[in-house]
Specification:
With 287 residues, the chain is of the alpha+beta class. The chain has two domains: 157 residues, Chemotaxis protein chec; 69 residues, SpoA-like (Surface presentation of antigens (SPOA), Roll), CATH 2.30.330.10. It is 21% helix and 27% strand. The strands form three sheets. Strands 1, 2, 3, 4, 5, 6 and 7 form a seven-stranded antiparallel beta sheet that branches. A four-stranded antiparallel beta sheet has the order 10-11-12-13, with no helix packed on it. The protein has a two-stranded antiparallel ribbon with strand order 8-9. The protein is extended and about 85 Å long. It starts with a helix and ends in an 11-residue tail after the last strand.
Length: 287
């Protein structure tokens, strides 16, 4: 058993359940099993056609889905069934994989896990995985969903890395050094500067009180490849990195000043400030 993988199975299951429930418009009965040791030879010997997907960067991973997943999800997403091998099915599968991975990435980020950017390659029907993909032992994380009296299967194949123990530091052979003499420390005293002024005329800062600043509240952000931007249409959903319940960032003229929570005031959105920016956040600005 791989503790590092098994630990985040509940988080992954929750993320993918939410994604599928939103897409299908009903509660998704998805279950993800505990990881099991396997190999590419064992995977290739499994019977029945599967939709195979390769993810990169190296060392990469692989996804296997029952063919019934594609017409089910395309019907919910496009209003018509698309099957493997038909025109445009690769783009559709890539879009679905990207959205599912984005949901998983957001969920795991809340658990302190940062997933890398990935790309997906959709293999042609009946095309097997490359010979050099995931050589040696691997972890197989299987899952299934019950819908309409049918069971849809799927699995993710991950490289199995050997467990390593960090080496203990070697004892130092250096001779002990004598303790340094204590250094006297005293607080630094500053004279009272009095009322702050600026300019040659010594005008008070109150003169700036009527200067208007543009206040911006950021709901969230997401970095997308150009290919995903070009595929956006009316009705497309862009999932933001901001989690539900997280405070929203508030900027004045592009400079971070506070955080707050969204409220409704007489049918209009508002923001209630919960935290003011500290000095160490003073250089944070809208990018």
């Amino acid at each position: 058993m791989s503790p590092s993988i098994d630990k985040f199975i509940p988080e992954a299951q929750e993320a993918l359940r939410g994604f599928l429930s939103t897409l299908l418009g009903e509660e998704a009965a998805l279950t993800i099993d505990a990881p099991e040791a396997s190999s590419m030879e064992a995977v290739r010997s499994e019977e029945g056609p599967m939709l195979n997907i390769v993810g990169s960067p190296e060392p990469g991973f692989a996804i296997r889905l029952s063919p019934q997943w594609l017409p089910l999800l395309s019907k919910a997403m496009l209003g018509e069934e698309v099957r493997a091998g038909e025109e445009g099915y690769e783009d559709l599968v890539s879009e679905l994989m990207g959205q599912a991975y984005g949901a998983l990435r957001t969920q795991l980020s809340g658990a302190g896990v940062t997933l890398p950017d990935v790309t997906f390659k959709i293999l042609a029907p009946e095309e097997s995985f490359p010979e050099d993909l995931l050589p040696g032992a691997l972890w197989k994380v299987s899952g299934h969903m019950e819908i309409g009296g049918e069971t849809l299967q799927g699995a993710v194949l991950l490289p199995k890395r050997p467990e390593t123990t960090p080496p203990e530091p070697a004892p130092s052979a250096a001779a002990p050094q004598p303790a340094a003499a204590p250094v006297p420390v005293a607080p630094l005293q500053f004279p009272d500067l009095g009322q702050e002024t600026f300019g040659d005329g010594g005008h008070p800062f109150g003169l700036l009180a009527d200067v208007e600043l543009e206040v911006t509240v950021e709901l969230g952000r997401r970095r997308l490849p150009l290919a995903d931007i070009l595929r956006l249409t009316s009705g497309s959903v862009i999932e933001l990195e901001k989690l539900v319940g997280e405070p929203l960032d508030i900027y004045a003229n592009g400079r971070f000043i506070a955080q707050g929570e969204a409220v409704v005031i007489d049918e209009q959105f508002g923001i209630r400030i919960t935290t003011l920016a500290s000095t160490r956040h003073a250089d944070k600005a809208i990018r």
